[in-house]
């Protein structure tokens, strides 16, 4: 049975770093998480296009974000057609956005959601650290907006497993199947 892992979290929450751990099979504290063969990420598409055109990520985002979204869904469709394991690395902060992405996923997939809940000040620190290291700049209002639209994932969205990762917790918390209300 193929797996879909939908990552949820504001900019700077650590989704892409976690994705690297999942791909490398390094998350012993998440034993049911799969090694995957397809990563779907709009940011990856935009970063590739920026590098190819010698433009910054920000300029590319401002001019090609919608086009990258179309490409992301094309890649998702191709991965599903090949029955690949998939990680979707995007903010996915609302039920509506998650439903749109999950509508592409057939019933035979095991559906896993991993949400990273990081406080605003820590997000801002991480984003600044990334800006200094990579030059990728994200305005402060972006994570503020992300947190404002955040709806914690629930099993009634169709997920078989939900994990919540917080910086202060020693290990990810799995949301019990019968827990259909926010909180653990």
Summarize the structure.
The chain has 184 residues and is α/β, with parallel strands linked by helices. The chain has six helices and six strands. A hairpin with a 7-residue loop joins strand 5 (161-165) and strand 6.
Describe this structure in words.
The protein has 184 residues and is an alpha/beta fold. It has a single domain (12-174), classed as 3-Layer(aba) Sandwich (Rossmann fold). Helices cover 43% and strands 15% of the residues. A 6-stranded mixed β-sheet has the order 2-3-1-4-5-6, sandwiched between helices. Strand 5 and strand 6 form a beta hairpin. Helix 2 crosses helix 3 (57-81). InterPro entries: P-loop_NTPase.
CATH homologous superfamily placement? P-loop containing nucleotide triphosphate hydrolases
Please indicate the count of domains: 1
How would a crystallographer describe the biggest sheet?
Answer: 6 strands, mixed
Question: If helices are DSSP runs of H or I spanning 4 or more residues, what is the number of helices?
Answer: 6
In terms of quaternary structure, what is this?
single chain
Strand content: 5-15%
InterPro entries: P-loop_NTPase (IPR027417)
List keywords for this structure.
single chain; 184 residues; alpha/beta; Rossmann fold; 6 strands; 43% helix; globular; P-loop_NTPase
Write the layout of secondary structure elements.
Elements: E1 3-8, H1 15-24, E2 38-40, H2 42-53, H3 57-81, E3 86-89, H4 95-102, E4 110-116, H5 120-134, H6 141-149, E5 161-165, E6 173-174
Parallel strand pairs: 1-3, 1-4, 2-3, 4-5
Antiparallel strand pairs: 5-6
Helix pairs in contact: 2-3
């Amino acid at each position: 049975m193929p797996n879909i892992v939908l990552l949820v979290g504001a900019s700077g929450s650590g989704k892409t770093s976690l994705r690297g751990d999942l791909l490398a099979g390094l998350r012993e504290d998440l034993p049911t998480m799969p090694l995957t063969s397809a990563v779907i990420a709009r940011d990856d598409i935009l970063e590739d296009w920026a590098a190819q055109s010698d433009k910054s990520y920000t300029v590319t985002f401002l001019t090609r974000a919608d086009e990258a979204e179309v490409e992301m869904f094309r890649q998702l469709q191709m991965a599903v057609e090949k029955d690949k394991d998939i990680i979707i690395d995007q903010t996915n902060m609302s039920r509506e956005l998650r439903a749109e992405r999950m509508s592409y996923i057939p019933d035979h997939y095991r559906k896993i959601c991993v949400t990273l809940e990081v406080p605003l000040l820590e997000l801002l620190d991480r984003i600044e650290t990334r800006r200094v290291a990579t030059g990728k700049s994200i305005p402060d209002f972006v994570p503020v907006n992300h947190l404002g639209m955040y709806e914690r994932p629930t099993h009634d969205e169709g997920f078989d497993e939900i994990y919540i990762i917080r910086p202060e917790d020693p290990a990810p918390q799995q949301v019990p199947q019968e827990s259909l209300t926010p909180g653990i």
